[in-house]
Every structure is written in structure tokens, then in C-alpha cells.
């Protein structure tokens, strides 16, 4: 598979057009995404907020190539996900996309360090131990390197999972409620780490969050409602403060 290393400067790292996706609920399909459009450029963090069950995680799964949309277009680094086969999508995800999950998704039988180098191993690549070691220090988890996830707190597991997601300097980071299961202080640390890593690596990031303070770290906040994204010009750039996010959530009744 040929994966462009960097998109053309004006090309979005993530481009989504008219995305539709239904889930079968018994015999009745429920259309969760009804024409989602979204662009995220290099170095940009975009937060998505919206009521529970509206389809935020479904969007992330489609972007990651873990679920197939019914129709519409997803381009990651210019690559049309629908034109890739399953293997191509897997390679693109492994090599260019970092994913942070709400429930960490660490491999329970591997140590913290082994979890961090997992993205290399599942790709059949030699681990970059320098990068992994730097990442271990960056998330402050060196003392936990040899511990199993069962010996870690939720916050520690999430810090390890963030190191795993970022170790290959992904072009696109997908984070699904990364602070949803950690305490407030760790949540702030996690958001600062993600923002710093994004800036340093020039990655684009799609963040799903219910937390206005987390959303306020983004360059742009969009709201999902009725299967669509509401692009809110008032919530971009310096206007993105947690107070402004709170106000908008209230106006939208979310
Ligand atoms: N595999 C599936 N099969 C059937 N229905 C599904 C499936 N995955 C999700 N759904 C349904 O699709 C809808 C959207 O789910 P999704 O997890 O994307 O929402 P969300 O906005 O991320 O919610 P939350 O904020 O609670 O995490 C929900 O009604 C959910 O029950």
C-alpha cells in the first residue's frame, strides 16, 4: 500500500463528506450519521460534543476504518478509505493513526512498556526504543514500565495508552473521551499532553468529549445533533473557552 507521508499543504489530514451510517437495532436500521461533513488540518485539534448515543463514537470508528459507512467519503491523508481493502485500512490505521479509548484498551498480559511498543510489533516493524523511552518519560510513567495494567490505576493506564497512541507520531489522533475515566487532575494532564504532542508532531486530532474544559483546549468545537455536525463559527480559535462551550451546550439543549 502506498501511503503519502504528508498531505499537500492545503489538503486536510481528515476529510469527511456526506457520511451516512446506520446500525441495525433488531430488524429496524437506525440511521445514526446522516450526512456528516468534517475537515481537520495538520496541527488542528477539533472537539466533537453531543448527547449520549448521538453517534460520536460511530464517527470515530468509521474514520479509523473499524466500521464501514453506508455511503459518503472519508479521506485520511488524501487516501480514500473506501478504495482501500481491509488490509490497506489496517496498515493506514497502524502506521498513521493513533487511537486513545475511554477504557484504555491495554493488553492485560503485557507490561506498560510492551504496550507502548505494541504498534511496532503488530506492524511487524522493529520497535523504536528511543521513541518509546522518550514517550515513557513524557507521560511520566517510567516507574510503571514493567508493571501490568492490572497493577496500574485508571489514570496510569490512560497515560500508557496515550504513549502507545503517540509513539509513532501519527498524522491523525482519534481520542474518544480520553479523560472520561480518570480524575480531574489526571484529565488535565492528559489534555495538556495531547495538546503538546499535537503541536510537536503537527498531528491533526479529533477529540470526542463531554467535558467543556477539555473541549476548550481544541482549536474548534463542533456539535453533533440529529446525525449531523453543527459547525459553529463562533467556537473556533481564541473564542473556544469552557464558558463559551457551556453556553453553547445550554443553547443547544445538550
Ligand atoms: N454495533 C452497534 N449495533 C447496533 N447499534 C449500535 C452499535 N453501535 C452503536 N449503536 C447505536 O448507535 C447509536 C450511536 O452510538 P455511539 O456509541 O456512536 O454514540 P455516542 O454519541 O458515542 O454516545 P456516548 O456519548 O454515550 O458514548 C446509539 O444509539 C447506539 O446504541
UniProtKB/TrEMBL annotation:
<keyword id="KW-0067">ATP-binding</keyword>
<dbReference type="InterPro" id="IPR003593">
    <property type="entry name" value="AAA+_ATPase"/>
</dbReference>
<dbReference type="GO" id="GO:0005886">
    <property type="term" value="C:plasma membrane"/>
</dbReference>
<dbReference type="InterPro" id="IPR017871">
    <property type="entry name" value="ABC_transporter-like_CS"/>
</dbReference>
<dbReference type="InterPro" id="IPR017911">
    <property type="entry name" value="MacB-like_ATP-bd"/>
</dbReference>
<dbReference type="InterPro" id="IPR003439">
    <property type="entry name" value="ABC_transporter-like_ATP-bd"/>
</dbReference>
<dbReference type="InterPro" id="IPR027417">
    <property type="entry name" value="P-loop_NTPase"/>
</dbReference>
<dbReference type="GO" id="GO:0016887">
    <property type="term" value="F:ATP hydrolysis activity"/>
</dbReference>
<keyword id="KW-0813">Transport</keyword>
<dbReference type="Pfam" id="PF00005">
    <property type="entry name" value="ABC_tran"/>
</dbReference>
<keyword id="KW-0547">Nucleotide-binding</keyword>
<protein>
    <submittedName>
        <fullName>ABC transporter ATP-binding protein</fullName>
    </submittedName>
</protein>
<feature type="domain" description="ABC transporter">
    <location>
        <begin position="14"/>
        <end position="251"/>
    </location>
</feature>
<dbReference type="InterPro" id="IPR015854">
    <property type="entry name" value="ABC_transpr_LolD-like"/>
</dbReference>
<dbReference type="GO" id="GO:0005524">
    <property type="term" value="F:ATP binding"/>
</dbReference>
<dbReference type="GO" id="GO:0022857">
    <property type="term" value="F:transmembrane transporter activity"/>
</dbReference>
